Amino acid sequence: MSEVTIWHNPRCSTSRKVLDLLRAEGIEPAIVFYLQTPPDRATLADAIARAGLSVRDAIRTREAAYGERGLDDPALDDAALLDAMLAEPVLINRPFVMTPKGVRLCRPVERVRDIL
Questions:
Q1: Rounded to whole angstroms, how far apart are CA atoms 105 and 96?
Q2: Which residues are catalytic?
Q3: In sequence order, which residues have a C-beta less than 8 Å from that of residue 51 and are 6 or more positions away?
Q4: pTM of the model
């Protein structure tokens, strides 16, 4: 099993670029297609924390569901945002990459180099 994991959405150009960069470095990561197999609450919260992000930083604001659910409301707490991300995994920003050196939300793509 690979020591590197990517939460990947093949429709996302940034996610594809990070995967290409990993492979160019000789790394074949474990690929989690998180839209089909979303993380559980504890795993998602842990990845966000280990990446040094707030839950709000990890939510994808450009998705229609973000506005439709009123997730821009600053009164919403982390639990409500996590609930929304778990209900609609497309709201999880991507790609998250996990290595033995840490976790990063790899936007921009070059952030993955911090943990290689």
A1: 4
A2: 12
A3: 58, 96, 102, 103, 104, 105
A4: 0.94
